[in-house]
Amino acid sequence: MAGGGAAASALASPWRALLQRALDANAHLRHSTYFQLATVGGGGRPANRTVVFRGFQEHCDKIQINTDTRSNKIGEIKNCPFGEHREKAWFASSVKSRLQYLGPQPGVPVVDDDHVKDVHLDPSAGPVDAFCLLVLDPEKVDYLNLKSNQRLVFTRSQKEDGSNNWMAEKVSP
Fold this sequence. Notes:
Layout: H1 6-11, H2 14-25, E1 34-40, E2 46-52, E3 63-68, H3 72-78, E4 85-86, H4 95-99, H5 113-117, E5 131-136, E6 140-145, E7 150-158, E8 164-171
């Protein structure tokens, strides 16, 4: 995971250490890096989808996921003043993962399975237009541990020097 390790943990917020411990403890489970990303879709309706946690940006608590620029979530995030997206991390992804960005647009019906089989990618080629690294900069984190029946809500504020200050509040699960 990007941004992990002892040096990063010294800079990290209190919730990041809890998340990293949970990820490490469940690394044997392939789905342990999946999480739900909710946005506001057309007409103000909520939209929710499963995404893959790709790590933290170095030296900060920003969360990274890879996505296809043609997917609905990109348009929904662009309409949100707090959204940010960047094209990066192409070569950190496996070739199999990169092939997804050469197929049809996400969400359209699959007419021909052979199209997917015929896609080829030069592993040394740079990112395609459809590839995007989405960076999430949390202001609030709601941490729930069902095993210990513990729930903590972390809220970020900025100090006068521009650094972050995280406040934790224990709340009823």
